[in-house]
Amino acid sequence: MSPEIIGGIYIVTAAMFIYGLKRLGSPATAVGGNLISSVAMLIAVIVTMLSQQIVDYRWIAVAAVLGSIVGAVAARRVAMTGMPEMVALFNGSGGIASLLVGWAALYTANGEFGISSPFTLATIVLSILIGGITFTGSLVAWAKLAEKLGSGSGAFAGQRYVTLLLLAITIVCSVMIVASPAWTSPLIYVVIGLSLALGVFAVIPIGGADMPVVISLLNSYSGLAACAAGFAINNTILIVAGALVGAAGIILTNIMCRAMNRSLTNVLFSGFATSGPAT
Amino acid sequence: MDMVYLGFILMLSVFLGFELISKVPATLHTPLMSGANAISGITVVGAILAAGADLGSWATGLGALAVFFAMINVVGGYMVTDRMLSMFKKKDNSPKEKS
């Protein structure tokens, strides 16, 4: 299929995502909304498969079948009470997928570790960073909800400074990658490792009762990660759907906070506040 | 120029996302989060392109792994959302009165 036809069908699927998300917001139409959105996803996947760029289907087929089985079994087996933590796990797997797409996009520009434009490099680094934070953050959220980790605040003395230091190193490394035209590969591993660590450090101080809000925020992040990956590989449907989820997720997070009579910053930094006096 | 177009698309999508979620009843917060999470599995499209295009074994491997994880997100996300919503249907006992 030519890129024009694929682009046209992407527009239709984007409209279906928007309509589906809208219908999900009202009790009477929610089931249909979810169905529309899932059909849109199916169409997007099939159309992408028919792209002329795709030359080898073997790995896609194996990975898609395995992933579908794991997802379907997990969704069917989970108890009704365990659904929020299941959503956290699914969200984490979406985050790691965006990280991997960003990583793979490094090879699309000009062959192995070739020189790409600073803009592309920046979006690649962003998708890796946000994807990694989403992944480990979601895993910690899952562990807290499933009570594998203590649900209380897991902050240790001075953790705030460790987190800030990690964040600073991450930013420096990211800027170095984007700025240097002949950047070297070890730096990307550093960013991947730091993003994974940051996800843990960001979520672990937050108490278990606040986890639904955190999962909603991480959901927004996974949308942003997909959006950044879309910029990295120049794909419009990734940008539209990712930005949609990113924005909707932020608003939903805000609504959930308001329902609890708290502000978002209050939820995110409550662990730090309680650990503050102990230091 | 391409970048500018993509930037416009991004800006419009963000505003749309803000507008879509305005008045949502509290019972729908979790299903909506789950449904939006499934949509974020759209990254599967990028994963397919990375795995299927001829970019060398490293990119193919990363892409295939990404397809695996993204498919978990997509399939699991939609199915779990559907299960949550079916739970509401039984409780409310009036799923289609307004539709």
* Cα separation of the termini of chain A: 62 Å
Total number of strands of chain A = 0
Described by strand count, sense and barrel closure, the largest sheet of chain A is: none
Helix content of chain B: over 70%
Note the main sheet of chain B.
none
Percentage of β-strand residues of chain B: under 5%
Largest interface: A-B, 105 and 86 residues
- Gross morphology of chain A is globular
SSE order of chain A, one letter for each helix or strand: HHHHHHHHHH
Give the termini separation of chain B. 44 Å
Helix-residue proportion of chain A: over 70%
Question: What count of helical segments of chain A does DSSP give?
Answer: 10
Total helices of chain B: the number is: 4
Average pLDDT of chain A, rounded to a whole number, is: 85
Low-confidence stretches of chain A: 274-279
Secondary-structure content class of chain A: mainly alpha
By secondary-structure content and strand pairing, the structural class of chain B works out as: mainly alpha
Oligomer: heterodimer
Low-confidence runs of chain B (pLDDT<50, min 5 residues)? Answer: 94-99
Q: Could you give the count of β-strands of chain B?
A: 0
